[in-house]
Design a protein that fits this description.
The structure holds 2 protein chains of 2 kinds.
Chain A: H1 6-16, H2 23-43, H3 48-80, H4 83-86, E1 89-91, H5 96-123, H6 129-148, H7 152-170, H8 176-202
Helix pairs in contact in A: 2-3, 2-8, 5-6, 6-7, 7-8
Chain B: H1 2-9, H2 13-16, H3 18-29, E1 30-34, H4 35-42, H5 46-58, E2 62-69, E3 72-79, H6 81-100
Antiparallel strand pairs in B: 1-3, 2-3
Classes of the chains: A mainly alpha, B alpha+beta.
């Protein structure tokens, strides 16, 4: 082994297995399209008050519901598609100390992102909101690419950035959110579909008796 | 140097075997995996993998649970606390041995 820390590589490889089939990206892509539809519908509301209420309550509710449902859908799909082909992995839950560290890091990171975004929104015109938002999504995707060792996430990061810039310059502001999430969803769907196709072509379901002791 | 070499004799031979080292390394980083995943990751044959898993189970390093997912038989594997401790001891011993080797 040439790596200075082969156990760390193995840990990364085990984590990466969750993304081996592209299913997470496809489900996430569909969820982003639902969000895009939500923003498109909201943009058509003529009443500012109604729009504020719908966004204020509907958006977080939709996001929470979407995350919960997506998780369940992904697991169901993996049980039918992935586990019979290349096996099942359950991931170690972080220790209490690690959970606390992560929560603190998350809060600090969230605060830093919020502060940076606020700063950028003040420096740039409102029309640049999609570009700024896509920059942060892109950085997040690049980080996930590094953390999980999934190279295609870097390509997705570039696509998200390009998508945000395209929306900034070519889409009317009132449709910016809907367009942005539509493009992001499209990128995830295509990435996931290509990965799934490759995965299905290179694996086949193992007969029950061959997949156990 | 002779003491460094002698320390190798104390290494856990159960884990030191390459196939079992692969198995323990995978189980060390996951909560639980199934037989099929290990088959794919290690590249071992079914019989070979089964034999190594049996040895690790006899030593109390891993737990093998046979269950079902619906109607499909499933073999789940998980490292035990004793196995985790043994693996960490093995890592430390090997690391110390490598550290004491003279540089070229």
């Amino acid at each position: 082994m040439n790596s200075p820390n082969p156990l760390s590589d193995l840990e990364k490889r085990t984590r990466r297995y969750w993304y081996v089939d592209g299913l997470v990206e496809m489900v996430t892509g569909l969820f982003l399209w639902v969000l895009a539809a939500f923003f498109a519908i909201t943009a058509r509301l003529t009443s500012e008050t109604a729009r504020a209420w719908v966004l204020g309550i509907g958006q977080p509710a939709l996001i929470l519901l979407g995350i919960w449902l997506s998780g369940r859908v992904v697991v169901q799909l993996k049980e039918r598609i992935t586990y019979p082909r290349t096996g099942y992995v359950a991931y170690r839950r972080p220790t209490r100390g690690r959970r606390i560290t992560r929560a603190i890091t998350g809060l600090l990171a969230g605060g830093l992102v919020g502060f940076s975004m606020g700063l950028l929104f003040n420096l740039f015109p409102q029309d640049w909101t999609p570009a700024i938002a896509s920059l942060f999504f892109s950085l997040l995707m690049a980080y996930l690419g590094w953390y999980f060792g999934v190279l295609r996430f870097y390509l997705l990061a570039l696509f998200l950035l390009a998508g945000g810039l395209a929306v900034t310059f070519w889409v009317p502001f009132e449709l910016a959110s809907a367009s942005m999430f539509f493009l992001f969803g499209l990128g995830m769907l295509v990435s996931g579909a290509v990965t799934l196709r490759s995965y299905l072509a290179s694996t086949r379901p193992v007969e029950a008796e061959n997949g156990s002791l | 140097m002779s003491e460094t070499l002698r320390s190798l004799a104390e290494i856990d031979r159960l884990i030191h075997e390459p196939a079992r080292l692969m198995i323990m390394s995978i189980l060390y980083v996951a909560e639980e995996v199934d037989f099929l995943y290990l088959l794919h990751e290690t590249g071992l044959s079914k019989g070979n993998l089964s034999a190594h898993l049996s040895k690790l189970e006899e030593a109390g390093y891993i737990l093998i649970e046979k269950t079902y997912r619906g109607k499909v038989p499933l073999t789940l594997l998980r490292i035990q606390p004793e196995g985790r401790a043994a693996f960490e001891r093995y890592r430390s011993q090997l690391k110390e041995f490598m550290r004491q080797l003279p540089k070229e």
